[in-house]
Amino acid sequence: MKVEQAAQVLDRPMYKAALIDFLYQLADDELLLGHRDSEWLGLAPDIEEDVAFSSIAQDEVGHATLFYHLLSELGEGKADDLAFGRPAAVRRNARLVERPNGDWAYTIVRHLVYDVFEAVRLEALASSSYAPLAHGAVKIRREERYHLLHMETWFTRLGQAGGEARERVERAVAAVWADLGDLFSLGAHEALLVAEGILPITRNELARRWEARMKPLFEAAQLAWPGAPQPAMEDGRLGQHSADLDALLETMSEVYRIDPQARW
Amino acid sequence: MTERISETLETALWEALQEVKDPEIPTVSVVELGMVHRVAAEGGRVTVEMLPTFVGCPALDILRRDVTARLAQVDGVEEVEVRFVLNPPWTSDRITPEGRRKLAEFGLAPPPAADGPAIPPECPYCGARDTAIENLFGPTACRAIFYCKACRQPFEGLKPV
């Protein structure tokens, strides 16, 4: 059943709970990756990348803002509080996006893997049964193409370069792959999310579509395909996070904790 | 929201909106950029639905303020509400021909009509087609940086989305 606005889910507690949990997955993924992107400001390999990563960070945080806003409409509170006031244990992001930036190769591989995943997720969300989410997904998809194109270009360039660049990419791929399992997890409400069409595809289908798009990129970069991601032992979508997230939240929420009423 | 709006008021509101410029591109109005989706009025209460060019555009608060302030000056308007909506999505083909001309005049290449991120536009200075992408990202989320091989100028352009 198509749901046009927030008010219509208030008397459907199961649908609402699944939707809220899933919106936190979307919002937390985007906010944390956006913050990691912003950490490159002034440190990126060249000035073009400073510009690119600032712009990408702004996009990702903007997308997070939209998802937190949708949560606000469902009675979850103010977007700023949701972004900065929630502890690690209730965060729903995949563990991959909470990791520190590492070197440039890690940054590129992590972002590429996430951007392809996001492209697949947004494509499915364009026909979400929750109309406000579907509309947001359609709009965000058009912006995300630029991130994906940028990461693809870097990934191919680093892979084809050989030498140290290639070695670093190979190390980055190994590190990213070890963290991939819960990216495809849909958390505690998977069955309902799919059955209600909030996200109209299963995690297996998400992973299958992701893999179909990743393989040609590895081929273009002349890198060996590392195989399908292994299921995660720990699941960020269930609030199981690493110490990296605590450290990240500590930094990210410093201003908020000093003055929760601050506007920026 | 009712759609009942007198023709005189509607004309006056659109004319006023034509005077509200993009905060970073002072030659182009929000109407020419295709950012105004709908204008409705009920009594003296006006609601404007606007489409953000990019979801994370930091200029939205400024646009809201500018639109509200300008429309408040229109005869018969008592209250203005600006709402940003995502349906329909803003796309770069909403920019009017007049908007495209003014963008180029400002030195910003209008987005190529082709729907692809990787196609460099014509140089806004010399009109040459032999241009290259310098950076898909620019000083704002909606811009990219290009280079003209004919007149050897770097230039900015609006991204097609």
TrEMBL record, chain B:
Q: Where are the transmembrane segments?
A: none
Signal peptide start-end: none
Q: Which domain of life is it from?
A: Bacteria
Where does the PaaD zinc beta ribbon domain start and stop, copy by copy? 114-159
Q: Where is the MIP18 family-like domain?
A: 11-82
Pfam families linked:
FeS_assembly_P, Zn_ribbon_PaaD
NCBIfam families listed in its UniProt record? PA_CoA_Oxy4
Q: What is this protein called?
A: Phenylacetate-CoA oxygenase subunit PaaJ
**Species lineage:** Bacteria, Bacillati, Bacillota, Bacilli, Bacillales
